[in-house]
Each structure stands twice: as structure tokens, then as C-alpha cells.
């Protein structure tokens, strides 16, 4: 039976609280990001919600110049795929306060957009920063 | 039985591809159907065609028209036969073709028509961009600001990092396909481009630039299929479909283990080769899904035309040029012929049909006997591969 903590909505509710969560299958122990109602590895529907550390490695990135209308004000912006330390991969916008060119394989940290716009996107957003930039004083969201 | 034909193509048609102003998808489809009928005078469309499968992706959003299969069937003058729309993003009509092959091979129908339609150029580029992005994962890709070119750009960055593929090698794909498209009277952009022009065009989603991207195009295409044993009733020059493959993958690119290959395309290719009893070495001419230049390089690898990471080398060596050992995208591909998404899969088969029946004019690959088409839906959540033979 699907419970309330293994849905896409529960994933984004956790983002609003500054947490990146996965669904952990209680049968085969696999971590699923996003959480989902059925484990594709063992077909169990028995999950617990676990909080991830929010650290990982950059697998690939692109710089979007031609953006859909909702994102045009941000362009150009960088989007990348990060492999989290716990294994799962997620995609998101990368803020690079230092402006240094990105390198595939470099360490990334997940941050959260606490300044959520009430209309689009309705769901809150997470984003990535190069780990080396996390303490940068020059960074502003 | 390995290599036994599954179905025969007895005729094919295509509209002109381009900005076809002032016409709806159904009207463009009628142009494609008429060419197929004219090519096959022994066929009575109303009496002989028993079923119709239509590929269309964006009718609902761009034309405000769902349910276009019965509409197109009516405008093509078919009887009140079963007409079904198939949707697999950019692979919609390749999947419709496969439905047609299965319908004929099952024995249920003697003659079926398959086709594809897309009408796109009447809308603003931003609207089309947004609609195309619907092929990406909504909650974790579209929501995060990723665009359709952005998906393939992520593959390109990963391919460049892993294998040393260069922006110049990608641009060479664009130059080649424009050179081919310049010889195709139905192509959207019939003009050659230089490497410099491709490399200096404006960035869409780095590392992809304007000339790495396929075109927003209107167009329609169709094929008439029958059982192999009935083919000679309709034509002296049938083309046989001897292999079909289709597979799927996660819609989210981020979930995949390897960003430098399309697993669905590799699997579909393996199925099609096995069914046909053929190997990549046997292919004389291919149409592959170059929605972006990097996609053509990855297609070479997924189809076994070269080893992993060697796609760039293949284009450097001119293997896939007209006159090379394995010419790819003689039609101009999605890059120059254009990419009316729902029409693309059957349009690829149309080009192979022309090539294998020596009707391809000054872009003819001499002596081509075996052809292949490769069509990708979205960023590879669907892929469809077909193999064709001139002789059963
Ligand atoms: Zn499990």
C-alpha cells in the first residue's frame, strides 16, 4: 500500500523543509529518488523515508541559453546531473558563485531555495553548488 | 524464422517538408497519401486498405487536434477502417510503422497504411520549445528548467568528457547532413553549410549550437504495407521489412547509468539484427535520428556501426558520407530535411524505400540492398529500429 511519504509530492514537501529525501525499500534496502509507491527491484511497497546528505559528484552539465518562457529570466543558466554519495542521481540547476568553469567529477553540494515563488514553480526547488564554493561569501541566491 | 520478411512496403509517399503555411496536418497528409497512391496504380485505397496507424506527437498542443487518425484516414480517402493514433514522442510514427508490421505479420490484415503528421511552424518557437519539452520528465526535468536540447547537451558533455568527442566532430554531422539535404527536393533546408558557420552559430544549450539542432518543420509521410506473399500483386519493386525492434528506458535521463548511450536504441537494434539475421556490417544505407548532432554520433555506436566512443572518428573518416562505406542520412536527416516529429519515423522509412528501389535521384546510394532506420522518442525513453531488404 502506498503511504504518504513515498510520493513525488512528499519529496518536494521535504525540499521545502530543506531536506533531500529518498524512499528506502524495507525489503531490498535500495534507495529510490524520487520516492515511489513500488520498488522496481523487488516489487515491495514497504518504504521508509531517509534523509540524504546532499553531497555528490557532477556527472554532466549544460548551459541553457534558449529557455522555456517560465525560465527565460534566468537564462543563461546551468543544469547538471549529480550522483549522490548514497547512489541515486538527480538533476537540477547549478549555481556557481565563483564562476569557475565546472569539471565533470567535481564535488557538489545540494542547497535549497528558501525563497519559493508562490506561482510557478509551485513546487519548491533544490539546486547544486560546487562544494568548493559553499563557504563563498560572494554568494547570494 | 530468421531473415524471413515480416511485411512488404509496396508504396510510399511524403509531403514536401518545410513551413507549409495555411494548411492543417490532415491536408498535408493527403499530399503524402496521393504520392503513395500514384506510385501504386494497382491498389484501390478504399477497397484494399484494411487498417491505418498514424504517428503524431504534438497535435493536441500545437494544432488543438487530438484523435487525428480517423481524420487523416478520411482525408486520405480510406474507407471506415480501424484508424489508431500512436504516440511515442519523436518516435511516434516509427512505432506506428511497427504496429503496421505487427498487424500484417499477425495475419489479421492484408494491407495497412501507416503514416505520420506534424504541423509545427505556425506557432511561436517558444511554444514549440515548451511542447517538445513534454517529452522530458515533468517533475524532475521540465520542472528544473531542463529543455529538450538540454537533454542531448547533457549527453554531449558526458560523451566529450568520456571519449574526447569534440564540438567540431558534432558540427561535421551537420555539414554532412546539410550537404545531403541539398540534394533532396523535399527537404526543408536545401542548402549546404560550412564547418565555420556551424561552429559559430549561437548557443542553444552548450555545447549544442543552432546548427547542432534539427528543424521545426511541417510534414507528413506514409507507407503502404502488405503481406510478403501479396506484394507482387501491387508492385514489381517491393521492399521487405525483415527486422523490427523497439525498447524503452526511464524517461528521466538522470536515472540512467550511462549518459553516453541510449540503452533503448541498443536493445531495439539487437532485436532487429537478430530477427533479420544480419549484422551492422551488412547495412548499405541508414537513416538515423539526428535530432541533435550528438544523437547521430551516439546512434553509430548504439547501432554497432563502430565501437563505443568511436562515433566522432567515423564522421572524421567520412565513412557515413555519400560515397563512404555506410552512408547515413542521405535524406538530409532531421537536421536538414526537417523534423516534423510525428512524421519523422515513417519519413526515414520513405527514404530507405526510395534508396532500395533506386528512386533517390542524385542522392542515390548505388547498389543499396539493405537499409536500416533508427528513431528515438524523447531523450531515448523509446527507440525503434527497422531493417529493410530489396530482395526477400
Ligand atoms: Zn525493493
Description:
The complex is a heterodimer of chains A (about 140) and B (about 400). With about 140 residues, chain A is mainly β. Chain A is built from 1 helix and 8 strands. In chain A, the strands form 2 sheets. A 5-stranded mixed beta barrel of chain A has the order 4-5-6-8-7. The model of chain A is unreliable at about 135-140 (pLDDT under 50). Chain B is an alpha/beta fold and about 400 residues long. Chain B has 15 helices and 11 strands. Chain B has helices at about 25-40, 45-50, 60-65, 70-75, 90-105, 125-130, 150-165, 165-180, 195-200, 230-235, 265-275, 295-300, 310-315, 335, 340-355, and strands spanning about 5-15, 50-55, 80-85, 110-120, 205, 210, 220-225, 240-250, 285, 370-375, 380-390. A 9-stranded mixed sheet of chain B has the order 3-2-4-7-1-8-11-10-9, sandwiched between helices. In chain B, strands 5-6 form a two-stranded antiparallel ribbon. In chain B, strand 10 (about 370-375) and strand 11 (about 380-390) form a beta hairpin. The longest helix of chain B has 16 residues, at about 150-165. The two termini of chain B are about 15 Å apart. At the A-B interface, strand 4, strand 5 and strand 6 of A face helix 6, helix 7 and strand 5 of B. Strand 4 of chain A pairs antiparallel with strand 5 (about 205) of chain B. Bound molecules: zinc ion (ZN).
Strand residues, percent of chain B: 15-25%
Kindly name the structural category of chain A.
mainly beta
Q: SSE string of chain A, helix = H, strand = E?
A: HEEEEEEEE
Which strands sit side by side, in order, in the main sheet of chain B?
3-2-4-7-1-8-11-10-9
Could you tell me the number of beta strands of chain B?
11
Amino acid at each position: 500500500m502506498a503511504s504518504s511519504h513515498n510520493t513525488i509530492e512528499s519529496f518536494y514537501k521535504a525540499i521545502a523543509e530543506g531536506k533531500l529525501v529518498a524512499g528506502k525499500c524495507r525489503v531490498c534496502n535500495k534507495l529510490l529518488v524520487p520516492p515511489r509507491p513500488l520498488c522496481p527491484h523487488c516489487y515491495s511497497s514497504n518504504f521508509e523515508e531517509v534523509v540524504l546528505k546532499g553531497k555528490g559528484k557532477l556527472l554532466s552539465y549544460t548551459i541553457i541559453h534558449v529557455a522555456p518562457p517560465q525560465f527565460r529570466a534566468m537564462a543563461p543558466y546551468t543544469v547538471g546531473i549529480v550522483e549522490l554519495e548514497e547512489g541515486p542521481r538527480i538533476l537540477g540547476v547549478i549555481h556557481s558563485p565563483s564562476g569557475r568553469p565546472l569539471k565533470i567529477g567535481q564535488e557538489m553540494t545540494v542547497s535549497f531555495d528558501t525563497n519559493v515563488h508562490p506561482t510557478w514553480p509551485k513546487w519548491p526547488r533544490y539546486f547544486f553548488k560546487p562544494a568548493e564554493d559553499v563557504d563563498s561569501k560572494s554568494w547570494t541566491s | 524464422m530468421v531473415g524471413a520478411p515480416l511485411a512488404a512496403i509496396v508504396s510510399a509517399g511524403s509531403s514536401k517538408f518545410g513551413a507549409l503555411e495555411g494548411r492543417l496536418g490532415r491536408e498535408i497528409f493527403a499530399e503524402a497519401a496521393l504520392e503513395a497512391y500514384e506510385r501504386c496504380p494497382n491498389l484501390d485505397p478504399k477497397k484494399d486498405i484494411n487498417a491505418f496507424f498514424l504517428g503524431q506527437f504534438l497535435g493536441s498542443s500545437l494544432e488543438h487536434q487530438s484523435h487525428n487518425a480517423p481524420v487523416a484516414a478520411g482525408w486520405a480517402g480510406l474507407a471506415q477502417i480501424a484508424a489508431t493514433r500512436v504516440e511515442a514522442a519523436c518516435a511516434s510514427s516509427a512505432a506506428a510503422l511497427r504496429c503496421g508490421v505487427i498487424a500484417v505479420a499477425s495475419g489479421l490484415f492484408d494491407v495497412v497504411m501507416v503514416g505520420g503528421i506534424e504541423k509545427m511552424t505556425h506557432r511561436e518557437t517558444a511554444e514549440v520549445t515548451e511542447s517538445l519539452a513534454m517529452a522530458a520528465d515533468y517533475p524532475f526535468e521540465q520542472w528544473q528548467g531542463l529543455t529538450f536540447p538540454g537533454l542531448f547537451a547533457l549527453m554531449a558533455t558526458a560523451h566529450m568528457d568520456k571519449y574526447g568527442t569534440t564540438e567540431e566532430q558534432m558540427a561535421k554531422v551537420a555539414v554532412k547532413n546539410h550537404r545531403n539535404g541539398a540534394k533532396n527536393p523535399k527537404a526543408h533546408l536545401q542548402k549546404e553549410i560550412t564547418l565555420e558557420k556551424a561552429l559559430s552559430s549561437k548557443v542553444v544549450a552548450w555545447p549544442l549550437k543552432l546548427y547542432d539542432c534539427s528543424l521545426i518543420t511541417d510534414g507528413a509521410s506514409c507507407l503502404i504495407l502488405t503481406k510478403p506473399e501479396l506484394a507482387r500483386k501491387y508492385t514489381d519493386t517491393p521492399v521487405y521489412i525483415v527486422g523490427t525492434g523497439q525498447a524503452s528506458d526511464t524517461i528521466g535521463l538522470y536515472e540512467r547509468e550511462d549518459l553516453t548511450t541510449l540503452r533503448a536504441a541498443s536493445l531495439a537494434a539487437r532485436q532487429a539484427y537478430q530477427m533479420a539475421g544480419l549484422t551492422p556490417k551488412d547495412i548499405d544505407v541508414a537513416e538515423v535520428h539526428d535530432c541533435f548532432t550528438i544523437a547521430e554520433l551516439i546512434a553509430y555506436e548504439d547501432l554497432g556501426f563502430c565501437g563505443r566512443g568511436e562515433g566522432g572518428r567515423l564522421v572524421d573518416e567520412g565513412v557515413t558520407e555519400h560515397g563512404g562505406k555506410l552512408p547515413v542520412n542521405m535524406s538530409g536527416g532531421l537536421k536538414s530535411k526537417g523534423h516534423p516529429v510525428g512524421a519523422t519515423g515513417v519519413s526515414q522509412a520513405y527514404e530507405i524505400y526510395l534508396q532500395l528501389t533506386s528512386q533517390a535521384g542524385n542522392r542515390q546510394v548505388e547498389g543499396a540492398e539493405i537499409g536500416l532506420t533508427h528513431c528515438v522518442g524523447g531523450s531515448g525513453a523509446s527507440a525503434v529500429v527497422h531493417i529493410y531488404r530489396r530482395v526477400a
